[in-house]
Amino acid sequence: MKKLLLFSMGLMAVAQLSFGQDLTLFDFDGVTPTFSDGDSFVAAANPHSDATNSSSQVGLLTHITQWSDVSCPASIDSRIYTSYSMNVFVPAVTVSGTIAVACFDANGTQLDWYQPTAISSTGAWVTITRPYTFATKIASVMVSFNRSSASLETTGDVVYFDNLVFHKTSSTSITLYNESFYASWSQWSDWSGLASSQSGKWSGGVNVSSVNDSIFIARIWNDVDHSFGLKLVPTSTDVTIAPVTNFTGFKNLTLSFETSWPWSSVENNGFFSATVAQRTISAGYRTDINNDGIVDNKDGDWVAIPTDTLNQAWSTKTVTLPASTKIVAMQFGKGTSLYTGLIANLKITGEIDNASALPMAITHNIVLYPNPTSDVLNVNGDFEKIEMLNLNGSMVLSSKINRINVSDLPHGLYVAKIYTKTGVVNQKVIKK
């Protein structure tokens, strides 16, 4: 898994954004990972070299079932790499076909599904591109092909894929957290479990506390921009979103979310008769003011976020978080929303702080978490060894595994010295 290091190593201008290179997931001339079905997706000679794709070797996918798909492992920081492109070639014998690309987290939860219009044989390679906004670590990627044909495994049931590349953002504004409240594998289902925790989500995932019949995550029909939402009906119970972390090294943090009341004026006048005051919700946030690593009642009252009257059209609420914010929790509810207030696309964005070592850290793609920690420190990324140093520079712990027991270390500040194949990176770690 690839995350951020948070130890200051000097100045680097935000405008450079020189962290990392574009990530090639497969290109068959160089990078060829292990695929879930190596029999149906194999390396083959490029059947048509042109300006779009002149690679000598490409991937040949055979249409074996209605949707023939293969997956390969990935480790992609979707906060930094925010789009991908892939080359596709449909040979004349295939005529046309529908392709799709899907991204998944470490739990196998689908983060994104991209299905462009059917691609016909044009006698040339074409490039598809896909931007995305989720901020969850991508653990695997699937490519699919459907010819919409009854015949299978014939010369006319093939498509060629090549050069699947994830592109780093060119923007100084980076999505650090994005929660669409998607919590069910089925697009037709509502969800009312205890938590929506997506493994690999940089900020820890959503944890909807006090879930009951009046608070749940629901499918939003006929709305491509809001697949799922947090659904509130009149209740006296607050909904708390688990504290979101990992903002060290970023500045100019902005929190936003979208709200709506999914009933038209005709429906309201004919049935609900909700007043303006009844079409409202309450919202607020709380940050770790006393800097003890948690968000609780010791950090003062919830800071109210003013919301307008809920209408059928979605409205975006945006607030600027305090400059010192490292952890933030959200709370919704205790409003007077009559028959369904909806909340979707909770997002936090920020800019890389000039004085942080974030660009270097991202290049090495390593993160330590949780931080602060009281017992176990997890290490994600490719590393050879990690040494824990106290503030006197003495080594107090050394490990080559990705779970380090620090429970015996005294409370305080340490420096993790991380050895990688391309260099050494340092990160501050707080033992609480």
Number of domains: 3
CATH architecture of the largest domain: Sandwich
**Helical content class:** under 10%
The CATH superfamily name of the largest domain is: Galactose-binding domain-like
* Annotation field: number of helices: 2
**Would you count the extended β strands for me?**
28
- Terminal CA distance reads 24 Å
CATH class of the largest domain: Mainly Beta
Question: Nearest-angstrom radius of gyration?
Answer: 24 Å
Large-scale geometry: flat
Structural class: mainly beta
Strand content: 35-45%
- Average predicted local confidence, pLDDT: 77
SSE order, one letter for each helix or strand: EEEEEEEEEEEEEEEEHEEEEEHEEEEEEE
**CATH level-3 fold name of the largest domain:** Jelly Rolls
List keywords for this structure.
432 residues, mainly beta, Jelly Rolls, Immunoglobulin-like, 3 domains, six-stranded antiparallel beta sheet, 2 helices, 28 strands, disordered N terminus
Description:
- The protein has helices spanning 265-272, 358-364, and strands at residues 23-26, 41-45, 57-62, 68-76, 81-89, 96-104, 110-114, 119-120, 126-131, 138-146, 158-168, 173-179, 215-219, 228-232, 238-244, 250-260, 283-287, 303-304, 315-320, 328-333, 341-352, 367-369, 376-380, 385-389, 395-399, 403-405, 412-420, 423-431.
- It is mainly beta and 432 residues long.
- The protein has 3 domains: 23-168, Jelly Rolls (Sandwich); 174-352, Jelly Rolls; 366-431, Immunoglobulins (Immunoglobulin-like).
- Strands 1, 2, 3, 5, 9 and 11 form a 6-stranded antiparallel sheet that branches. Strands 12, 13, 14, 16, 19 and 21 form a 6-stranded antiparallel sheet that branches. Strands 4, 6, 7, 8 and 10 form a 5-stranded antiparallel sheet that branches.
- It is flat, with a radius of gyration of 24 Å.
- It starts with 22 loop residues before the first strand and ends with a strand.
- Residues 1-20 and 183-207 have low confidence and may be disordered.
